[in-house]
Amino acid sequence: MEATKIASFDRISELKAFDETKTGVKGLVDSGVSQIPRIFHHSTVNLANHKPLSSDLLHLTTIPTIDLGGRVFEDAITRKNVIKGIKDASEKWGFFQVINHGVSLELLEKMKNGVRGFNEQSPEVRKQFYTRDFSKEFVYTSNFDLYTSQAASWRDTFMCYMAPNPPKPHDLPPICRDVMIEYSKEVMNLGEFLFQFLSEALGLNTNHLNDIDCSMGLRMLCHYYPPCPEPDLTIGTSQHSDSSFLTVLLPDLIEGLQVRRDGYWFDVPPVPGALIINIGDLLQLITNDKFVSLEHRVLANRATRARVSVACFFTTGVRPNPRMYGPIRELVSEDNPPKYRETTVKEFAAQRSARGLDGTSDLLHFKI
């Protein structure tokens, strides 16, 4: 018993010591650590990397890539084929990459550079934004679930709700303020477009998902994954599914993202200029499991330069939103009854905030 207490006390002390530096994982790397602290050590179960054997799942390689044609379709057949591609991907993978998506490649690079710029500026400047008060307009921290997770992950993050009530420009760091505002507007436009196609893929009216406010909220999380000296001992982001309706992810060209399907981990190779789209738990809930929200994770960074990504979640999160969400009436029947109870986005998001990324689906709590 005494040994357990000592181990527990040591862990809390180490967590607090790390947190109080206010410089995150980047601070550890800058200090020249060659061994990662114990608080970042993950179990071998979490780190297991089951890949399909050559004889298994030969029809599966990785998530599909869909050409959106600049969001302009000259004929109905092309448009119909794109919707079919989105439908198939949403039912089988819950993930797909989009190219020719209408967001300029220049803006994508500026956004990634903004994330690098913030994290690679003076520690004294970064410290001013570091907080665990998630009610603030802009939050820079390392591991939102630092004190509740079994092990910390090798990443730092800054986050902000960009819609429906965007922050005042002075609440955002000067180094990435303008590009955050510009990029979030472009993602909102893309999201509304995708929700139209997802609606049609479900056999619903084109505007159904937008009309029930699936595209109303946007939360931006900008991740910074420094190079890791012991990548076999930790992870960049642990196994989880997203609690949003939809996620638009801007990755860089450093690999690391994996999607879990049928018990296997599939690598998602970066496609230059592409955005990665994935179905969130809330969309699985309201489609009554027709679309799937698959678990995914990010491996610790083995490269010599930091990996960055920008995840934009279509959700109002824990912010006020009185609308109730349950399986869409048109998608249920006597043969396919509702599988989930109604909930609010705030109640749903609170599950994630309380538990952190513990590898279990938030959907389980709302099953009928």
UniProtKB/TrEMBL annotation:
Family annotation (Gene3D superfamilies): B-lactam Antibiotic, Isopenicillin N Synthase, Chain
Keywords: Iron, Metal-binding, Oxidoreductase
InterPro entries referenced in this protein's UniProt entry, alphabetically: DIOX_N, IPNS-like_FE2OG_OXY, IPNS-like_sf, Oxoglu/Fe-dep_dioxygenase_dom
Protein name, UniProt field: Fe2OG dioxygenase domain-containing protein
Cofactor(s) the protein requires to work: Fe cation
Protein family: Belongs to the iron/ascorbate-dependent oxidoreductase family.
Gene Ontology MF annotations: dioxygenase activity; metal ion binding
Presence of the UniProt keyword Cytoplasm in the record: no
Residues covered by the Fe2OG dioxygenase domain: 216-317
Key word DNA-binding present: no
Entry-linked SUPFAM superfamilies: Clavaminate synthase-like
Domain of life: Eukaryota
PANTHER family the record matches: 1-AMINOCYCLOPROPANE-1-CARBOXYLATE OXIDASE HOMOLOG 2, OXIDOREDUCTASE, 2OG-FE II OXYGENASE FAMILY PROTEIN
